[in-house]
Predict the structure.
Amino acid sequence: MAIAMGWHKPDNVAGSSAPAIMVGLFVATGGLLFGYDTGTINGILAMDSFKTQFNTGYRNDEGNVALSPAEISIIVAILSAGTVAGAIIAAPIGDWIGRRISIIASVCVFAFGVIFQVCADAIPMLLAGRFFAGVGVGSVSVLVPLYQSEMAPKWIRGTLVCAYQLSITCGLLAASIVNLLTRQMGGPSAYRIPMGLQLTWACVLCLGLLILPETPRYLIKNGDKHAASLALSRLRRLDITHPALVEELAEIEANHEYELTLGSESYRELFVGSPHLGRRTLTGCLLQMLQQLTGINFIMYYGTTFFTSAGVSDPFLISLVMNVINVVSTIPGLFVVESWGRRKLLIVGSTGMAVCQLVIAIFSTLATNDSQSALVAKLLIVFVSLFVFLYAASWGPVAWVVTSEIYPLKIRAKAMSVSTASNWLLNFGIAYGTPFMVEEGNGYAALGAKVFYVWGAFCILAAIFVYCMIYETSKISLEQIDEMYERVDFAWNSKKFEPSWSFQQLRDDGFADSGIPPPEQELQPSRTTSNTNDSIQTMHTEESGHNENQREEDKIIHQMGNVDFSY
């Protein structure tokens, strides 16, 4: 399966990665919920039937029935307010009842909110439904990348997490198609059908999650080693007594024990813990904020209405084209996120986006007559399309990849919750504030297309931030990322990092107090033997050949050849 898509499992990795890949791709479809909801409201706000149903007496400059900028702002932004709440509560729930059950609960909350939206006939009930839907989406946005990163093999982990962003883009595209088909319908069905269709995949996702395994790393964190070995066995298609599986599980367990010696699992550890947890938390939060400040949600939330004001003849069709570009452009990111690495892809993406934004802003500023405005409208479409391509291939998926990787197991859920909440907080600010920045009228900034100066400046800042703060996390295990943050002082040197520690040795040889082994003693990965009476017991081996068991294990490993025990 992976080979057919252009990836190849390393020859020295034992077992099969197909189960983990299929599980990761299915769970990634949780992104459809957010993408479809975002795309739906984008088109619904421009539907005449929606304006008529939810109008409170406001009329635009032409005297037509419409929603005021303040009403549009709160309808769009209330979803983001819910997602902030959902992202914050995702961590304690995910640590309490597990990643898998938490995703199911989050999808159920989302479905509850959708039912409210479909039944709404006035703005207050619509807002309540969008808030509850937002709570579900916010929780899913934390738990899905968390689930994926904790169960995926390291050689394809980034690609699987990127698939979450691909699902978001597919949801946006599906919403555009549905809006295009229903916009001419009479009455409330024009907007209720797009809203109600959100329940379809929510039900499929819940049913599928019922049969999927919990992540092995959560089970180790929860102290259930036997269940962790069974879950890892399903994901790697290896017997629970296989040396490679035993070794991977032992390293996960030893890493978690090592982390606990450096501090507790409290929220305080996010900012003062070791190794460099404060810097890692800040990195995740700023990365998620800058993802929003690239300006992508300005296009996704208000694209249809903005293209209308810019003089584009068929804004619904142009919005559909943008979403097609968004989906197709995410696919190159899936291919290069492992070969290029996270840093290079983010830097190239933010630099290209900055150029697109500034070109749009400059030409919009220089346009002074109708003929020039027509040219600017065409340039707007071209460069917004290029901007969407660059975003979808880089910042869209890779921001989720990085924040799902850089935190240690003991605080991973909490740290991802905080960083994702910062994403949604900026999402709320942009969704609510954009109409006031762009629209004309008393008390409005009336920036129009000049708002792209703002997004362009933030894209330049994003490129600088990535160079200085983002460590390269491709091709190493989640446990080895802890070692990298201890040994590598500057992000721009992280590409040269080569892992050499074994957390089993750190635990067994007593280096946990300092976290750094003495230079004269090189650490090598420990080898393990297993006992399957009731559970798996891992044993550390010191030198070669002390007893008969050691000699048997040496024979087994020798027969296996060069097998990579680190996933």
Summary: The chain has 24 helices and no strands. Residues 1-6, 511-567 have pLDDT under 50 and may be disordered. The CA atoms of residues 116 and 490 lie 49 Å apart. The longest helix spans residues 69-97.
